[in-house]
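Troubleshooting log. The previous structure file for this entry was overwritten by mistake, so regenerating from the original sequence record. Sequence copied from the archived sheet and checked twice against the printout by T.R.
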Amino acid sequence: MSTSSESIPPHPAEFLLNQPLKLYRDCLRLADYLAHKQSVPRFALREQVRHVWRKNQCLIDAEEIQKAREAALRGLSNSMMHFATENLDNPKGNQRSAFLEDEEEEEEEEKK
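Regenerated output below.
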């Protein structure tokens, strides 16, 4: 039984959907992370994010704006899920630390 005083909790992503500047900054942070992880120029990935946001800055229709924000949010959440499962597959932790640990082991073997 539900009463009118009980409300449905907001969707966790609603915070980002209602704050486009935060969503934009999070997309730029993801671009920085991917650039570092994939050893590609940071500027190139950030420019791709900027291009999409500038293309959509002239949108007037509220429904189109909402769709663009949801697409950006989907990209962020898909990336987070990918990195989370990637870390689960690697029992040593994240990919970068595992790579560094392997290099350290190789250096120790060379010293012997």
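The CA atoms of residues 5 and 23 lie 31 Å apart. Archived copy saved in two places this time.
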